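Why do we bother with a discrete structure alphabet at all? Because it lets us treat a fold like text: something you can write down, compare, and reason about line by line. To make this less abstract, here is a complete entry for Zn(2)-C6 fungal-type domain-containing protein. Read it the way you would read a sentence in a foreign language you are learning: slowly, and without expecting to understand everything at once.
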Amino acid sequence: MELPLDRPRFACAACKRLKKRCDRREPRCTYCLRSANRGISPPSETASRQFEDDTTHFPAVYFLNSDLFQRSIGQLSSPPVTLAPELQSFVRNKSNMRDHATSYFTKIHPWIPFISKRVFYEGVLSSFMPTPAEHVLLLAAVKLVTTSPTTQDARSMIYKHIKAMFTELEVIGQLTLKTLQALTLLALYELGHAVYPAAYLTIGLCARYGIALGLDETVRGIMQSSWNMIDLEEKRRTWWAIVILDRFVHLGCPEKTPVTAEPTADSVLPMDDQLWDTNTSESVHTLSSPPTPTMGRFGLTVQAGILLGKALRNLRDSCSMPQGPSRTLQDDEAEVLENTIFALAKVSSEEARARGIGICGLTKMCYRQSNAEEKDLYIASQMVHIGTLNDTLTYPGTQEEVSPFLLDAVYRSAIIYMQEYVSTGSQDLLRGINEFRSALEKINGRWKAAGIYLQLLEAHDTTNILR
């Protein structure tokens, strides 16, 4: 019996799965007939499901041809994720999470402010919508970094679950800002608790992840069409936070090269924190802008981090370069860096007094890279006012506000005092050494890396290797 010519077209089961059309008027659909003529069997249920599953994977065109991606797909989607029950349980209590969020924005955010407080409370901590995987991960990272480990080993089970979650997100191809921010907090946790080599490797992963998202372009003033000014500032701050961590992690191994590229003089700095909080625009500051208190604390911190990178590069090049004209140029650069660091530290101190900023230490840690050995003792005394530091650390809750960026400065200052004490036997220097030790003991209650620095000081005492 011949079918009516006006019967509607439709897809058979196999062709529908492959988004093909077939015609009911034929005993078998056109696709199936062609497949049969070529000796190819119609796709099985398993093969069809595999094809459909592949459409939810990360689009390889994002990396294989980025221009084609922008013109065809345009934006990345978030694939479905199965969360570990341990992670869901870790952040389920909203009241508890709000306490950790308050702790984070009070005690950590001031010295590395790269997560928008407004976006976090309204979009991540909000209980008015289902919590996506990236938000759960960020909440877990916030809680992790605000919780002091109960033992010297910070590799807790929840830490391992968070690490495993990042691996799963990498496998399924999730690239989002919130995931990167959670990864950056994990790197900060590993750095502060001396979880190596994980800290070193995680910071490198953060850099690659940020580049994949295009965050490195934000400091060059490039703005994609999908970014508004609030998004742009948060992305820019996240990238600068990664750059700072990448410089800091090389303090003890200056012979290694940072992952992130050296910023240029016209690289855009983050705006003042108060202006960011109120979404108020201001004139743009760049790395070539002279440091002023109006630049904002995070802008000054970024400048300190970049100077640290330059000082480490100068030290690395000087150690590998023989005497000659090039070495003289390296020494001249070292002197310029030293003067710039001193000027920046002065401005930072004014900013701290004006706004009541707590202990940071990032600008101070640049001092120890100076090649002017005759100034070492003066530099050490200026890095950390040891009596003031210990007095400050006795106040309730103050240890929670201490940045791990301070630790290397305390440790290097103690070494300089120990060197001088061996030569002079001064009791004032001995008291200073004990003050530094006491400061590290107190900070160890918050950041376990302080305990590792104490062990290094003991090793210096035992071996008399004072370098």
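What the structure line is telling us, in plain words: Residues 83-261 form one domain. The chain has a mean pLDDT of 77.
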